[in-house]
Design brief:
57 residues; 1 helix; mainly alpha
Length: 57
């Protein structure tokens, strides 16, 4: 079974310098982790919907 990802929290206001020179920026990391989490949520909902439809049959 795949490990459930925790919903990532956005960086705190003082985590980002706002200068645009950091590579990767803390926001880049946040958005990448958020994308992984959202994709996993979509997959879990699809599996749940499939299980529910099979249970009704």
């Amino acid at each position: 079974m795949t490990k459930l990802l925790e919903k990532p929290s956005p960086p705190a206001d003082d985590d980002c310098c706002g200068g645009g020179a950091c590579n990767p920026c803390v926001w880049d990391h946040y958005y990448a982790e958020r994308k992984k989490w959202r994709l996993q949520q979509v997959e879990l909902k699809a599996v749940e919907a499939q299980s529910n439809s099979q249970a009704k049959d």
